[in-house]
User: What shape does this take?
Amino acid sequence: MKILKFGGSSVGNAERINSVIEILQKYYISKKIKFSVVFSAFQGVTDKLIEIGNYAFKHNPQYANELKSLIEHHYKIATQLNQNKDIKTLTKKLEKLFNELKEVVDGVYLVKELTPRTLDYIVSFGEKLSCTIIGETMLNRGIDCEILFADKLIKTDNNFGSARVDFKTTNKKIVDYFNKHKKLQIITGFISSTSKNEITTLGRGGSDYTASIFGAALNADLIEIWTDVDGILTADPRKVKNAFPLESVTYEEAMELSHFGAKVIYPPTMLPALQKKIKIVIKNTFNPEFPGTIILEKEKTSKFTVKGISSIDDIALIQVQGGGMIGVSGIAARLFGALARHNINIILISQASSEHSICLAVLPKYAEESKKIIEEEFRLEIMDGKIGKVEVEKNLSIIAVVGENMRRTPGIAGKVFSSLGKNKINIIAIAQGSSELNISLVINKSDLINALNILHKSLLKK
Ligand code: ASP
Ligand code: MG
Assistant: This one.
């Protein structure tokens, strides 16, 4: 059994959905390969649903127009896909979904209240609609399948918007269901539900995760994530012209690379697959013959030590300095604790062994608030002069050089620093985790493109 997943851009319009169905026919159905397939909402629909919810919440009557055009958009695709076919069943199902959706957004408009719970319920229609249209279209074309709304099998806590999966219950439900349903399943991505059957979602981009949850529960041979690029690339092709797709990466590398901007796969997707050691392949819907990137536990051989160079383009650095920090334990704990209590996410930390300064990177929007929090936490130390000024520097970027084999290979850091040095690019801070999987550098934003290209050239020779 294989689990396939097609994302929003693969199902952006009728023409693209036709190509997806052709891919299924050509590579799976005609070859009698057993599989099930997860779909995202049609391209842009999740964003649209959030927008509609927010209009309604703000009591802006525009919500009704937007809803109307969303409904028309789906009917249009449904009709285009089923020309000269009887679509009574499909229309009936769509009417029912639209009535439910309309009822809830009208309610939001009336009471001017939009909780995370209601928002999850609203966005869940995106996947229900896409799977209903695609599934019914496939049935109309003689492909024997069933539509599965996965909220009834994937059980989560009530952390709406980004719920955590209860794997024990979920796995059992999935296995039971598939024991009773032998047909090809057309599965909604992204959506799940609490033990009280309230709809939750798995986080934006969560359809990948759905595929991995099903894949792991069913001990699939393979999970295929079909997207709109040739695989995981060595760098962002918009910034590095010579970026190229990798044949293979490890789960850990894929996770690191996807944390740092390369949005090819939703990072939590790796976990269920890794536990069962199920390989994930990234494939391109627009270039199906291309082998794509395979994500696995260990590569037999690897051509590259460094697998990718990615970046977070805009960060701020906060520098805390002072003689009073030397040899005093608990400073770092208080610093990070204070920021954590205010839900500020720290992207990178670096402390020199002199302990004279700690610097940390945050998103620029949190910079001023972080400075205030730190000054408040160390008010007494600052008064006594044990800690000096807390300084914020903006217009910086982080570059991450990622590769599991860096662990066993000396000289990579040397190469990174010397190639940047030769090109007069100043490095402001450095961090390397002890996993040695990732070397991160903070540089001026104005050097970013240049630095990425220099590093790519020196570390990723084809
Ligand atoms: N439709 C959801 C989103 O846009 C889930 C997904 O596409 O994976 O975030
Ligand atoms: Mg999406």
Observations:
- The radius of gyration is 25 Å.
- Residues 7-8, 40, 205 surround magnesium ion (ligand 2) (CB under 6 Å).
